[in-house]
Predict the 3D structure of the following.
Amino acid sequence: MRSFTHINAGTVHETCALLSKYNGKAVLNAGGTDLLSTLKGEHLFDYPEAVINTKTISGLDYIREDGGVLEIGALAKLSEIVKSPLLKKNYMALVEAARSVATPQIRNAATMGGNLCQDVRCWYYRYPRHIGGPIRCLRKGSGPCLAVKGDNRYHAIMGGRRCFAVCPSDTAVALVALDAQITIAGPKGERKIAMIDFYSPLGNALKKDEMVTGITVPRITGPMKQRYLKFALRKPVDFAIVGVASVIAIEEGVCTDVRIALGAVAPGVVRARRAEETLRGCYINEDIVSQAAEEALAGARPLSMNAYKVEITKTLVKRAILI
Amino acid sequence: MHSEKYLLGKTIPRFDAVTKVTGRERYAADYYGDDFLWAGVKRAGIPHARLKGIDIAIAKNIPGVVAVLTHEDVKGTNRYGIIRKDEPVLADSKIHHCGDAVALVLAEDKEALRCAIESITFDYELLPGVFDPEEALKETAIKVHEDSPEGNIIRYVPVETGTPESAFNECDTVIEAVFEVSRQEHAYLETEAGWAYFDKTGQLVIVVATQTPFRDRFEIAPALGLDMEKIRLIVPYLGGAFGGKDGITLQCLLGLAALHSGGRPVKMWWGREESFLASVKRLPARMYYRLGAKNDGTLHALECRLYFDGGAYASLGGEVMTLAAEHAGSAYRIPHVSIKGWCVYTNNPIGGPFRGFGVPQVTAAMEQMVDILALKIRMDPLEIRRKNIVRQGDTNCVGVTLTHSTGAEECLRVLSEHPLWRGKDTWKKSAAPFKTRGVGIACMAHAMGYPPIVPDVANAKIELTEEGKIRVYAGVVDMGQGNASTYLQMAGEILSQDITGMELVLPDTERTLPSGSSSASRTTYTYGNALIKAANTLKMRIFEKILPLIQGSDVNEFILAPDRVIHPPTGKEVSLKEASRFFSESERVCTDTFIMPVVEGMNDVIYMGPHLIYSYGAHLVYVEIDRLTGEAEVKDYLAVTDAGRVINPQVFEQQIQGAIAQGLGYALYEDYMVDEGVHLTPDLATYIIPTSMDIPEMTSIPVETFEESGPFGMKGAGEIAMSGPLPAVANAIYDACGIRIPRSPFTAEKILKALCKLSAIIFAFFISKG
């Protein structure tokens, strides 16, 4: 790790001002569980001049329901999300997703905002400096994606263009299925965008001087079955090879509403809209769910080594709906 | 006399338990002092190149940098290596793998160190590399070491018994298969660390995490041009090693740093990525097997060709492959055998010792072969093993008659009577939808100690201190397996002392005696035997010394008790402290030597000669496969082990459980991937090892044969269980869903692909049948 200026931020406004001042040369630190490995591995060409500690901003760790709308502050710990009675009652997909992250110790430090903003796990992108890296690629400014010709077993099976690293966040997948919005603060105030629009192939929607302050989830009407299923090499403490979140309302065996989100298959989270349409209004049985799973993966274009992810995603979609 | 078993066979808390769990124990990385310097290394990061020049100008001028050293600063041979001196302290003419050290920096703080390492550049001509052992054997292959007399061959080992050529014609069934196993990283908790300085007498003192303090001196001295007698190694407890610290890791670099530190102590401590990059790995292997049997299941002939990827330097790769060749037939009687093994240089990470030392690789192959054969001749996998398993008096695959304890058959018997074996069919039938269950077994053997050409010697030393305490000088490193504590338990048994009241001196080339490496399942056996003799001498000496004091008539009338000697005929007691006063300085210490017995007169059978004494095991595993994702989950595990008598059941069980966990990692997840020199799994986020959550319930049953030559009847238990999990899991996967994956680990990805292929074949079969 190299030396940097460490600044404790007092407010969101101050944080954005600092981000403006450093003009891309500062990074935010909340739980630090992702940032520290980035700083230590030095796999980026640019090293931050300043690390702005956001943990000192008070009042950003809320988990509350306001008029049926769920609000979670960016500094809410994943362990609080796992424990929250409110979330366990109505937002089980998010609870399951948060619980699937890393270890209890890491969840005690990791935050909602940090989990959404974490950097990708691509092993070429993250290749450490001291062992022959860093490797140049488009995500770092310029260069080809090494995963295309190299070992791409964990890379994108859809939506990849120029960069095939996948979005590693588990909670983002659940939040997309819950139709959440993400609140972004900048020097000129706040804006809200849909969770699904947050990620782009080479990063996310944050501008240099912006930060995530929280998420909101619209009112849940009626009983909804929610799931987050994660498939990884190792059960605990591992990043998803595939993650699938589902939120589904079933009345008398008929699907009245459904949202399905696919994680770790693309640079961002993918909504399986065609699959949802297939299910909506139909009696839920194995045939229709299999059909939906096929449709969910209809756009998949696997790379040389990751076709198995297509099959696993289909299975997870089926399980998320049926079980 | 005291009761027959004072401490023996009892679970008593390890001597190191409290200091370790409370954080008081000092490991090599915990050594700090005033005014010390940090030492660090610039690594090559490229797999194969001719080194043309190193630019250290910028690094030298960075404030806080004390010295920047290259190969030109190495005054000795700049080469080390246990068998072949092929590894440079700092790279000179060529770079042979990504982890090569190019320059060494000494700095006041870690920040200056980092900046300096970062600023060092070197001129090179990139060379094409060789990354596959069979490719490396071709005439036209790139030569990793141009000066190597046999090209890329580190070691070629042929073994032949009987008449294998004609024996295959006598078989009713012959099967053939190829197996590949992955490169495994030790991933010990404690990364390589050390502390070095020159003391007032001009002696180089190195405090370091190593398995081999005495042997290391033979390597450091010539490499750096130092006098071996002027090097002292002190080895605290290790935070794990598993073979990865068997030999030089950072010792030479530390010594070189101390030579240029201006008299200040130097500290070096590798991070996880550096440890992964530079350390040795379990050798990946490709193994071609051919096995022939009679219709009744009698194994008759075995032929195998083993290709082990030794990586950039010889290390002990050739010896690892040799032990593999010796164990290629697992624990069975096979009269006609032809084994050919090659350990080969490549530009991959260095292959070296790792718990099992080649045996897990070949056991993975052979135990799958036995199951394939059993299926072919419609025999039960347990029955075919029982029929062929070695018994005492049998001749093993390399022609050695097993005259010592041989409990392999007993292991199988215990396994066959266990509820997990008896209940397997019921368990298999109760699988949930889309799940399919299988049960697999595997046998294993593991030779103990060094081969005959390297005498397996230990020198024990025990002392009655002035304070009347018993002090054991352990010359063999305790890398976490608990052997040091077991030494105290053994001495305590003989001297009737509780281990908490005893003292322990960990390996120190100045204070303890040379006793060989902490490896080869030998530490407790060899040192323990020497210690028993020394402790008995001390006991008699204590009795002799107080005989006049008590005015007793016979030393045999005395008994020892914690901290005192008792003379039952008179009821008199003398404290050990009191007794100690009658000892002169030289009399306090008793030493003794033990040399492990070996096979005599058969050294031409195999390179280095064959082993005499073996531990054995039989494992059983329950595996559940998710048919839709391919995920294999281990549900239950049974390990039956013959490692002779058990001294401390808890320490024994820890060894078995640890090996099972490491073995399941080898079977299911662990694959240190290198793509033409690029390390794809350079850290613990990408190199996946099992956590406690991934490990099933493990049952360990010792069969406790009595090894006559062993200390209190024991044999080595550190490695044996490492070889079972991979083949047992492979056999269980086949039992569950009829697939064999030729290359481990058995990840969901591979199982799913095989399942899809299988269903396509079945589909095609039904189509063709109309």
Q: What stands out?
A: Chain A has a mean pLDDT of 95. Chain A has eleven helices and 14 strands. The CA atoms of residues 74 and 214 of chain A lie 4 Å apart.
